[in-house]
Predict the structure.
Amino acid sequence: MSGSSIMEANSFRGFAADGDETDLQRLIGRRQRVLGGAYRLFYREPVHLVRGEGARLWDAEGREYIDMYNNVASLGHCHPAVVAAVTEQMSRLNTHTRYVHETIVDYTERLLETFPAHIDRAMYMCTGSEANDLAIRVARQYTGHRGIIVTAEAYHGTSDLTSGASPALGSGQPLAPEVRTVAAPDTYREGDAAGARFAADVRAAIADLDEHGYGVAGLLVDSILSSDGVLPGPRGMLSDAAAAVRAGGGVVIADEVQPGFGRTGETFWGFDRHRLDPEIVTLGKPMGNGMPVSGLVARGDVLAAFSDHLPYFNTFGGNPVSMAAASAVLRTLQEERLMQHSARVGEELLERLSMLALTHPLVGDVRGAGLFIGFELVSDRDTKEPATVAALRVLEELRRRGVLTSVAGPHGNVLKLRPPLAFQSSDIDPVIDALDEALSVVEH
């Protein structure tokens, strides 16, 4: 399992060859014939979704599910503000950024107001992979170095540069020779020493990059350490590592695709929880509630080292329709105080999830920030041995009970609970009931 959790954990392995073929089996067969073998479906029996609204999804047979996983639809599925904004703009104009259009300027001015003052420039793409790809290029141009440091289970994208810095894609995807991995700080197993150990390992990685002639261009980090098992840690846990990178001549790239836009509840941007003060920040599709839009924001002088020498054009990055979606998301987040909502409902959910440890020995640790929670299952609380097989069985039992999520971490034993921000206090009871029943079935 190690090194491949993002692709292989909770993935469909094929139907048993018995009984009559169902409509779902026929559809999956057609899918596999035309889409090939690279794609992965969730669950032993995949879910055929046809509709979504808020934090709910419905399958082709009308079965309703609570979505505890899809942060890309950050506000909620089919959010009316985004639907209206996209529909209105699409009916008027959609074109690329080599023509003047006020939507991209208006949005960027509002977006930059949410960042520290020294973060004062933005560029736009269509995917988080493209944003992280550009961030690596900018960091290398600014520092004159090539080395990139990432966490041991990080996922940062699917382009050539980013897949080479995404160990979560598995052993079939080799890391680039100038990339070094560092085990994420895990306070469940390391306690208060986690941050200091992480910083020490980052310094060792910098020394190794220097020794091999690469130098360090940057630390590329998702501040909630999502793919590493959702490891929020105490505030400031990553700050010593950031200081070490700067001392080594590199910059900090905060990958905010998952922890950004108020999801952690405590701060609008995940990097603020850890006082990272990044030179470069990357944003992904949650900024547009799932529309193909992403961004890179940066310190002006850092970005200038790239943009003053190399022109960059992303045909539909920052197009008017995507900017309309992003504007609707940012306006809704601010007007409806969804960061505060995430903090309040997330705290309620975290408390209720923690109570399950009183009656279920499989529950090892429950941790999170806002509506981003890691629910770790272990086979032995004393040794903290990961319960990988049990976690996958729990996922299947949850699906049967109308709750959708998946797993994270090097052993695939951490349930990643990351619902759209439309998730309400009233949704907590059915999730807890389903998880209580699923744990009971697996334990007995």
In short: Residues 194-211 form the longest helix (18 residues). The two ends are 24 Å apart (CA to CA). The chain has two domains: 5-77+338-443, 80-335.
